[in-house]
Amino acid sequence: MTITRFVLNEQSKRPESRGDFTILLSHIVLGCKFVCSAVNKAGLAKLIGLAGETNIQGEEQKKLDVLSNDVFIKALISSGRTCILVSEEDEEATFVEPSLRGKYCVVFDPLDGSSNIDCGVSIGTIFGIYMVKDNHAPTLDDVLQPGKNMLAAGYCMYGSSCTLVLSTGSGVNGFTLDPSLGEFILTHPDIKIPKKGKIYSVNEGNAKNWDGPTTKYVEKCKFPTDGSSPKSLRYIGSMVADVHRTLLYGGIFLYPADKKSPNGKLRVLYEVFPMSFLMEQAGGQSFTGKQRALDLIPTKIHERSPIFLGSYDDVEEIKALYAAEQKNA
Ligand code: AHM
Ligand code: MG
Q1: What is the mean pLDDT of residues 280-307?
Q2: Cβ contacts of residue 183 below 8 Å, gap of 6+?
Q3: Which of 121, 217, 244, 250 is most solvent-facing, going by the fewest CB within 10 Å?
Q4: 266: CA distance to ligand 2 center in Å?
Q5: Which are the contacts of 177, defined by CB distance < 8 A and separation ≥ 6?
Q6: Is pLDDT of 117 > 90?
Q7: 124 CB less than 6 Å from ligand 1?
């Protein structure tokens, strides 16, 4: 089952569908294949390094994340199905010119985990898709919508294999690129996250600045008082890879607020929302420390939020700690 056939099957269940979403998705898939190939060749092709450097032929070398952004922007515009694009790499949103405009808004991080690029650790692309509310000229309000309004979300991980995980709002499915065919094949149908996990994933180097509930939670992971075994710590520092492991093995991924970053680090539109959408679709939960992550209404395209996501029971525990703190305040 290729991803194309999978999406066409989904489309045939919706008689009103005219195939626009399938076309959009095929352009996203093309972008992922292109970036995957660039990531694999990065060392050879000298794509590692700083943007703005010139190579021996005097051509400007593009850093992988700049290249990936260009690839996705071009792929999305040329689909003819998008109207607003928000990328982590671009300060401003891109409004597609009217002749190429469609009804979808795509928010994305073209290459997340950039600190891992130069050492060959897994990195990825994250994306979320909204539809414009009606037929007006698109405005930023079309993307400043809560994550629960997303139609679809996914990520592609460039790791030991290239894996695309997608939800169109009815479960989560994983596809692996078969390089000999150049096709993504359904390898992980209907992914469900274990209800409770044995792994926690957080940058503990920030511990001295954490708030009470995060500190208590991590302490409980290491020194459980209920007779259970301590949890294992796994932290790659690439959200796509850390979330992918969490989705498959269960557990919790945390990027909390701290005294230095009161809103955490991760961006609401193209990191927190797509991953929260996938988690909920797989039976897990996602929480900001105050509310369900997908209920957040962003006011700026690059807004950040603390995030706790993963297995249902594990997120329930951190929610209880925040609720207790609220009660005692
Ligand atoms: P980036 O978008 O600049 O690559 O930063 C996002 C990344 C995530 O992939 C990862 O979860 C996080 O930053 C790691 O941050 P830290 O190095 O502070 O632990
Ligand atoms: Mg990022």
Answers
A1: 97
A2: 2, 3, 4, 177
A3: 121
A4: 7
A5: 32, 33, 36, 161, 162, 163, 164, 183, 184, 185
A6: no
A7: no
Residue type, 99: S
Which pLDDT tens digit goes with each residue over 125-160? 999 999 987 767 889 999 999 999 999 999 999 998
CA dihedral (312, 315, 317, 323) in degrees, to 10, reads -120
Checking if the pLDDT of 17 tops 90, the result is no
Q: What is the pLDDT of residue 175?
A: 98
Tokens describing residue 262: 């009161």
Q: Give, in order, the Cα–Cα distances in Å from 183 to each of 5, 41, 80, 308.
A: 11, 19, 22, 33
| Ion ligand 2 nearby residues (CB, 5 A) | 109, 112
Q: Identify the residue whose tokens are 């991590």.
A: 218
pLDDT at 13 over 90: no
In the chain, the domains with their CATH numbers are 3-188 (3.30.540.10), 199-328 (3.40.190.80)
Q: With a 6 A CB cut-off, is 265 part of the ligand 1 pocket?
A: yes
Q: How far apart are CA 270 and CA 109, in angstroms?
A: 6
CA angle centred on 77, ends 177 and 106, rounded to 5°: 70
- Which residue in the block uniquely carries the two structure tokens 């009217």? 98
